[in-house]
Amino acid sequence: MPHCIIEYSEDLTQELDIQDVMSAVFSGAVKSSLFSSNDIKVRATPFTYFYAGSESEDKKHQQRFIHVCCKILSGRNLAQRQKLSELVLSQLKSFAIKSVSISVEIVDMERESYNKRVS
């Protein structure tokens, strides 16, 4: 835990190495000191088709984005969740990408109903 899921506009791959973005998110989660580095999972999914900020079909006028959803087991307090969000965002801001919306969301997963199997 956590599961850090990166969604991004596909055209960002022209100026970013997504592996570097994944490493930045991982680093932010590690710096939070809330998780063991062995427990952090990061994955990324590009979006080719989306509307963001405008319903224009002209892709040049679409707002590019990176959105990170960190799903964590419930039980962390607000200050801990805010710190995680701020650290992940700080790592992403270090890329100094132009014309992009960057957001980070922390989502509690109900501890009592979460199940996992590793084989």
In short:
With 119 residues, the chain is an alpha/beta fold. The protein is built from two helices and four strands. The longest helix is centred in the last third of the chain and has 16 residues, at 78-93.
What class, by secondary structure content?
alpha/beta
How much of the sequence is in beta strands?
25-35%
Portion of residues in helices? 25-40%
Please write the string of helix (H) and strand (E) elements: EHEEHE
Tell me the number of structural domains.
1
For the record, what CATH class applies?
Answer: Alpha Beta
Largest sheet: 4 strands, mixed
Low-confidence stretches: none
Total beta-strand segments: 4
At CATH level 3, the topology is Macrophage Migration Inhibitory Factor
Strand order of the largest sheet: 2-1-3-4
The overall pLDDT, averaged over residues, is 91
Number of helical regions:
2
